[in-house]
Recover the amino acids of this structure.
């Protein structure tokens, strides 16, 4: 049982690819939520009396499906996640209540008491995701922390993870022991490999990887692994 204040939320990352998401609302806030859901692969449907210009454009081009002006429980059929983003708190609460009765994930914007999940402030560098949350107490402060972190995590982190993913495949193909694999990965992370990527020193990066893995790598090969081209 959770006895400490602030431990209500369980951090989790969701795979929304191909999942149906319903957004109730068509204004500026709803637009931001729709864009984020689309960026993460969700199939978005919207219910709203009025659509702002951008949302209307998404509907007209078929990127988003329009389900009508007034929310009804039928709109929840087959839905994985719901966002209530109208300017009417009572409407948002009704959407939340009906969604939660069906066991759905629901976020009511600026109404944490009507949410069973909240959206953190997110810093993304490719496959690296750093999320910051204040459990709904101060989204502005979460955003400030995320902005402070942006200077510490440059684009080289995206390249590093792409590279590490490919190197992991290569190392595992060597059929070494689990302990040997662990030592190689830990040495790569503790090395100056990330610094070399930051400096775009691909030959230096190749030297580091070759020494640790025990196989010859070229700078060009690592550039391809890191999805970089000269």
């Amino acid at each position: 049982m959770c006895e400490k204040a602030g431990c209500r939320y369980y951090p989790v990352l969701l795979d929304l690819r191909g999942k149906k998401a319903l957004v109730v609302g068509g204004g500026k806030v709803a637009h931001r939520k729709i864009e984020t859901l689309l960026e993460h692969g969700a199939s978005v449907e919207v219910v709203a009396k009025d659509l702002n210009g951008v949302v209307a454009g998404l509907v007209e081009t078929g990127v988003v499906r329009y389900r009508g002006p007034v929310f009804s429980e039928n709109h929840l059929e087959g839905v994985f996640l719901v966002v209530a983003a109208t300017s009417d708190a009572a409407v948002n609460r009704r959407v939340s209540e009906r969604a939660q009765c069906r066991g759905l994930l629901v976020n009511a914007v600026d109404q944490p008491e009507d949410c069973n999940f909240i959206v953190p402030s997110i810093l993304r560098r490719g496959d690296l995701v750093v999320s910051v949350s204040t459990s709904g107490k101060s989204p502005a402060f979460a955003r400030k922390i995320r902005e402070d972190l942006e200077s510490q995590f440059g684009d080289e982190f995206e390249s590093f993870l792409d590279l590490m993913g490919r190197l992991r495949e290569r190392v595992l193909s060597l059929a070494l022991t689990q302990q040997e694999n662990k030592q190689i990965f830990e040495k790569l992370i503790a090395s100056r490999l990330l610094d070399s990527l930051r400096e775009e020193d691909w030959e230096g990066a190749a030297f580091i990887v070759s020494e640790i893995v025990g196989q010859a790598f070229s700078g060009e090969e690592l550039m391809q692994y890191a999805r970089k081209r000269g």
The domain at 20-119 is CATH 3.40.50.720 (Rossmann fold). The first strand starts at residue 20 and ends at 24. The radius of gyration is 23 Å.
